[in-house]
Amino acid sequence: MDILIAAILTIITAATPLLFAALGELITEKSGVLNLGVEGMMIMGAIIGFLTVNQTGSVTLAILASMLAGILTATVFGILVLVFHASQVPTGLALTIFGLGLSALIGQSMIGVAYEGIPKLAIPVISSIPILGDILFNQDILVYLSIFMVFVVYWFVNSSRPGLILRAVGDSHDAAHAMGYSVIKIRFLAILFGGAMAGIGGGYLSLAYSPLWVEGMTAGRGWIALALVVFASWKVGRVFMGAYLFGGITILQLHAQAIGIGIPPQVMSMLPYLATIIVLVLISSDRTKIKLNAPASLGKPFHESR
Amino acid sequence: MLPKLVMRQAPSKAMVYLSPVLALVLTLVASIVLFLIMGVSPAAAWHAFFLEPISTIYGLTELVVKATPLVLIGVALALGFRAGVWNIGAEGQLILGGIFGGTTALFFYEKTGFHIIPLILIMGIIGGMLWAAIVAFLKTRFNANEILTSLMLSYVADLLMNLLIHGPLKDPDGFNFPESRLFSDSALLPILYEGTRLHIGAIIALLVVGIGWILLSRTLLGYQIKVIGDAPAAGEHAGFSPTKIIWITLLISGGAAGLAGAIEVSGPIGQIVPVISPGYGFAAIIVAYVGRLHPVGVLFSALILALSYLGGETAQIKLNLPLAVTGVFQGLLLFFLLASDVLIHYRLKFTQQATL
Questions:
Q1: What is the tens place of the pLDDT at every residue in A198-223?
Q2: Does residue A249 lie within any of the structural domains?
Q3: Contacts of A58 (CB under 8 A, 6+ apart)
Q4: Which residue on chain A is closest to B335 by alpha carbon?
Q5: Spelled out in words, what is the top-level CATH class assigned to the domain B65-320?
């Protein structure tokens, strides 16, 4: 039983950064913009968050700083894509290359620095329920926030008026423009939201998941988050499921080793990447489904003709 | 007075070539700010980064050694990017080339013969092609996004290398160190200039530039690549098969990256080590763009990116600057290039704000 609880707890911690980043990218893509720079925004969030907690000791400031780092990195992307009309694919790649480089540079002084990790927030009374209490109500603030954001994003996309406008912009920017909505402004906000969420997701890695700084510690999670959005067919509920599914795969390696299954650790580490490929294959082979669910203007540039 | 972007009647040919120059200038200017923030004198850092590495013959040969894999991969990626095929997993294909080529070199340990080096290079190409073929298969058969699959396979390749170098490829007399045996002389690429590491890979890279140029400008395949990339609908109408183009461009870029991997292990490294590339596969994406997706342009941009590696190493030794500066420099260059490229399709118009 203890092993099972431990496994579930690690699934939650492995899923949380993916959930943040994928929810953010979902909103960005709903606006019609494909930002391939999630990995770069996450790693910037990771280093800035870790740096901040180290300098100030404040978890709140660190989380805000992670978010801000993601927003600033996303701003660069937004300006290039929306103001300079740069194509989205190479700009996203540039963001990732730049983020990995800059974070390594900033993080020089943080290598080998220890941090105990952000504290758990036990919700009084209900956290003492056996088993369930520990799993559901004795987590850190970011885990709660990630779940809260699932509901917020779900409501925003499906039930709110701004969410409707966002989808309109993503499905047909020309029609949305003709109706008088500012496509550029709405897309910029969506990109910034994506950055904020990726930043927090990255911050979760260095503040909670493995509280330390390692160069390139995001290890492809930004890319997995991108794949999750496709896997989820741009649906919020499925992003949540997908993130937890991947969280489960990520931690398989830890527990398989603990139990002593004789598979080399490198092979176990390959699992999340191989699973991403398999999932993409399964979901993408149904071309009509992808076409129906993907925002129709995804990746296409917009220029005001008037 | 605010500058406004106005769409040009036709794309500016001049800006296509001026944009990389502008981007390079902006990167150099931005690097001043970067160096000031890091608390080093920009003059000293500039000297260490951009001049000192190429002020000696040895430095120049090292520049060519580093540019070689970048040219090989950059030319091939440019072909794919032209066709709209986004292979960004060249790093993984390079690693597979290193594994295949390196294993071949170890197979011929302490043997001699002129067939060994060609075999190493061919096996490297096959290794890279196999890795890219997975991407092509998943893309054409299952419609899986090649950006994500090729990148995921890069992480897998890295782990595969790690697995092999801690296992079967490990030097049996190496005190359990994760490195292979040093290759025999017959498995090492011939040196072009005694006393340096300049090897025949540089000539191969030049050949690839020539082949790439002819392929793109003089063959039907090159024409098909350009049409499919610029106007997919027109291409299909003309009967060009996108599936074929996806397969061919991925096999070419995979093969080129694999060749680069085999060249690295049998050239400058001389054995298999856990990390055989400082991100050449990713830097080659920047190389392809800065080189305007043209084989000859790639040749020049590869030298610039090679200098960023070399300069990073020199600045680390001389000024104790972290090696990560290289990555920042490369990222900045691509940012500025993408921003400058706006002037290809748009021009700046300075207009007086109309008063109501």
A1: 999 999 999 999 899 999 999 999 99
A2: yes
A3: A52
A4: A94
A5: mainly alpha
